[in-house]
Write a structure and sequence with these properties.
With 138 residues, this protein is an alpha+beta fold. The chain has helices at residues 21-32, 44-55, 62-84, 112-121, 127-133; strands spanning 87-93, 96-102, 108-110, 136-137. It is built from five helices and four strands, in the order αααβββααβ. Strand 2 (96-102) and strand 3 form a beta hairpin. The two termini are 21 Å apart.
């Protein structure tokens, strides 16, 4: 028997997720305690994310991760595409729509599982490690 998809019930926008980028990125400042000016869609801003997430690490629980994995994924997807080209799109897998990046070289990757696992289980929060390692193959 297959387990539930990691994003099961976490993406309320389904295949229309890309139509809600502004809203999703807009919720991050209040949730993470980060100034909106720090979220400028540059690769440098990923380090700011790690700094602010580290400050609230003791407060991070499953509810926090479930509420923020989609906004953080959308933000990283946008940074990747703006910095490197390619595109991101929604793909149906198992029981949910998931965001997938197609690089300009035709490689498929995703960040949501790495972000989820990093926030839930890792001792050190490192969203930048996820991003700069290329995420996970999709």
């Amino acid at each position: 028997m297959k387990g539930e998809h990691i994003l099961h019930n976490l993406n309320p926008f389904g295949k229309d997720l890309k139509n809600h980028i502004e809203y999703l990125v807009g919720v991050l400042p209040a949730r993470l305690g980060i100034p909106i000016s720090e979220l400028n869609f540059t690769e440098d801003s990923i380090y700011a994310l790690d700094t602010y997430l580290s400050k609230i690490q003791k407060e991070i629980d499953e509810k926090f991760v479930n509420e923020n994995v989609i906004p953080l994924t959308v933000y990283l997807n946008e940074i990747f595409v703006r910095a490197n080209g390619g595109e991101w799109f929604m793909e149906f897998d198992e029981d949910t729509w998931q965001p997938v990046i197609l690089t300009r070289f035709g490689e498929r990757r995703q960040y949501f599982s790495y972000i989820y696992e990093n926030l839930m289980y890792d001792e050190v929060i490192s969203i930048n490690s996820c991003y700069f390692s290329g995420g996970s193959p999709a």
